[in-house]
Specification:
The protein is built from 11 helices and 14 strands. The protein is of the alpha/beta class. The protein folds into 2 domains: 135 residues, Rossmann fold (3-Layer(aba) Sandwich); 166 residues, Dihydrodipicolinate Reductase, domain 2, CATH 3.30.360.10. A hairpin with a 4-residue loop joins strand 9 and strand 10. The chain is globular. It binds nicotinamide-adenine-dinucleotide. Nicotinamide-adenine-dinucleotide (NAD) binds next to loops.
Length: 355
């Protein structure tokens, strides 16, 4: 593997933020190519940096032996096809959320990853930041005890112009609404802290913008541990906030309200037994600064590529996020609860978009 690892970013929208993340780790990564059909858009992103080749032809990028990672920042309906092609070309893959369009595709990709011996990391950059690392440190040190409940708010503001990009807000292009595209990060964090979901039930509604997909949802989860959780989602808030509370036997953890960088935000950890607050504070204060957001995500990926994995986002994490999506859409349409895990017998195994 070349050092630094050589990356081609495919798609110049959120790809611009990926580029910043790689640039924060110059000893680990070099971005050699930015591929987009829209050359002008790509040129704006590279902003005169001649070390990055702008390339409209994805097949040429896949065939380039000097690329180690294909980083897919394309609209969702292209994720599966391009991930498969990149693995077949012998590349490691980073793929934006939602990493595929069904549990079936997730299982096919997991098989392809295993056969290829390459790493595929679905993007969940919200995991990375000091506040969240503090919460993980408290759990790892055994100070959390039993998990009781958790609440998550994904209260963001998306006005009509957000849907000017034609694939957004449609089942065919975006493949889902606020559950799939927006709250998916925060639901990943829920499981990252509380473990897997045992069952859930959900309501969804389209109340904010005239779109096909949902822009509001309320979801109730029972985790495998027996802990409970609720998620409230809207794209019709007055501003953008993400907010978490995790109530454990040992302490309550509360995030700030930063919408897209909850892990980096200042978290508060309040001991239930005041006599143990100092112990909690000592663990929290000992957590060093870490790379946040995309830089943190890529740093963990580089560790995994170099054989020091453990912190990287895995295909199993990506599948778990889509299992929740599938169960949420299913119960929202049919009522009742969905028991997880979901396998090939589930009616939405091959896709949750309405027929
Ligand atoms: N992780 C996050 O926080 C986050 C944030 C925003 C978007 N996303 C995800 O990133 C993905 C892209 O979203 P976006 O908002 O950047 O979309 P976008 O439409 O703004 O950008 C996609 C780009 O891909 C290009 N493109 C399309 N087909 C192509 C092809 N065959 N070859 C080369 N280029 C092609 C388009 O020209 C466009 O510039 C989506 O899956 C979205 O859900 C993730």
């Amino acid at each position: 593997m070349a050092n630094p690892i050589r990356v081609a970013i495919i798609g110049a929208g959120i790809g611009a933020s990926h580029l910043k993340g790689y640039r924060a780790l110059p000893n680990r990564f070099t971005v050699s190519v930015l591929c987009d059909l829209d050359q002008e858009r790509a040129a704006k992103v590279t902003d005169g940096d001649r070390s990055i080749r702008i390339e409209p032809d994805l097949d040429r990028v896949l065939a380039d032996p000097d690329i180690d990672i294909i980083d897919i920042c394309l609209p969702p309906h292209l994720h599966f096809k391009v991930s498969m092609a990149a693995l077949a070309a012998g590349k490691h893959v980073v793929c934006e959320k939602p990493f595929v369009s069904s549990l079936h595709e997730a299982d096919l990709l997991a098989e392809a990853v295993q056969k290829s011996g390459r790493i595929l990391s679905p993007v969940f950059q919200y995991r990375f930041g000091r506040g969240f690392a503090q919460l993980r440190a408290l759990i790892d040190k055994g100070l959390a005890g039993k998990a009781y409940t958790s609440s998550i708010e994904t209260h963001w503001c998306r006005r009509a112009e957000y849907y000017d990009i034609p694939w957004r807000g449609t089942w065919k292009g975006e493949q889902g609404g606020a559950v799939l595209s927006h709250a998916i990060h925060n639901h990943d964090l829920l499981c990252y802290v509380m473990g897997n979901v045992r069952r859930l039930t959900a309501f969804t509604a389209t109340r904010v913008n005239p779109i096909e997909t949902e822009d509001c949802a309320s979801i109730v989860f029972e985790m495998e541990s027996g802990a409970l959780a609720t998620s409230s989602i809207t794209l019709g808030a007055a501003d953008d906030t993400s907010h978490f509370r995790f109530c454990f036997e040992g302490f309550t953890a509360e995030s700030g309200k930063a919408p897209y960088t909850p892990a980096e935000d200042t978290w508060h950890f309040l001991a239930r037994d005041p006599a143990r607050q100092a112990e909690i504070d000592a663990v929290v204060n000992a957590v060093p600064e870490v790379h946040s957001g995309f830089a943190g995500f890529f740093d963990a990926l580089a560790d995994a590529i170099e054989g020091q994995g453990g912190n990287e986002v895995t295909v199993a994490d990506g599948r778990r996020s889509l299992e929740m999506v599938t169960a949420i859409y299913h119960t929202a349409r049919t009522g009742g609860t969905a028991e997880l895990p979901l396998n090939h017998e589930h009616p939405l195994y091959k896709g949750w978009t309405p027929k």
